[in-house]
What we know:
Elements: H1 3-18, E1 29-39, E2 45-54, H2 57-64, E3 69-79, E4 88-102, E5 107-112, E6 118-120, H3 123-131, E7 137-139, E8 148-155, H4 165-170, E9 181-183
Amino acid sequence: MGLIxxxxxxLPSLALAQTPEPAASAAATITVSQPTLQASSNGPSSxxxxxxxxxxxxxxxxxxxGVTLTFVSEFKTLKPRWWWFTDEExxxxxxxxxxxxxxxxxxxxxxxxxxxxxxxxxxTEALKACLVxxxxxxxxxxxxxxxYAQLRLSLDTSxxxxxxxxxxxxxESWVLSTGWVRVGSP
Length: 186
């Protein structure tokens, strides 16, 4: 049997070995409903909107085994350019939320931008606190004429332990992002 015959004979077993189990292949989802930029009378503009998160069983298992998950909330304002392929970014605001689980106390701890951690007994409540956008002050003044804003919430796989990087890159259960969502103005 030649080299090509050996390679073709091994392909079916290779495909079966890489097929994920049905329970482990459930994808994680995150959505932002009706993100809106609210301008206040004293100047700063803040976001409002509802975030819903559904973690895959793989992510829940990772949290329960002590892996810290870092979520990134990104907000940017853009100004259209008729003479270029992409719009110009005029402001970018980034916030990080870290979610950890402590097995001795059976509590989830959430720290947003290095603030004092909050403790939760329910994973759903901890995720809400980690990814909340309501009241997040993103701009010191209202949007200028012609500008628009976008928001993205995602799991930062680069903050995972090095041993999980390859797994996170090749397994869809670790993918969690809203993509860029347009923020409305009232």
